[in-house]
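hey so i finally got around to running the thing on that chain from the lab meeting. sorry it took forever, my laptop kept dying and i had to restart like 3 times. anyway pasting the input first so we r on the same page abt which one it is
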Amino acid sequence: MRPLTDATPKSLLPAGGKPVVAWLIERLAGAGFRELVLNHAQLGWMIEAVLGDGERFGVRIRYSHEPEALETAGGIANAMPLLGEAPFLAVNGDLYTDFPFERARAALDDDALAHLVLVDNPPHHPGGDFALSDRRVANAGAPMLTFSGIGVYRPALFAGIARGTRAQLAPLLREAAASGRVTGERFRGRWLDIGTPERLAALDAELKASRA
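ok and heres what got predicted. didnt touch it at all, straight out
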């Protein structure tokens, strides 16, 4: 996303007149989520300055500072003292979606370590990440679908990661999927990974046109 992210965190880049992350927070609040934890590293102080304690969104926001970017699993492990011992919903901060987040509350089966929201493969990721059959996620199969960056997790999934260390999420998910402990669902609604300036510009134009 450079040069856009040289001076602004990706989640604060504007789309439709507000930061990308604000759209997510509003949808989470609308689905009844009131306690949010936001990870941040580079320029994280800007995120705190813009979002504050979350009161204007009707939520409470707490922040987990990463001394350096720890990847997704490392960031979650670092935030675990704020997340507690119950299963939790995690959402990438650079997404735009109309996924009904209220579904996440009952998504996790008793024996599962994770529940993933999968989407049809976008043009920039045609090979997908996981297969899905009868709510069970597998590392191979057909059709292959793309992990949306929306998941429900048990803290036990991250038990082997020391706080402050870098760790990717994909290896943890693949190990759990191989043992049959990852469920999933296929979401066919609006979902966009805002990973390039071009995709951000297209979303910005779309949202501005819809508001007009």
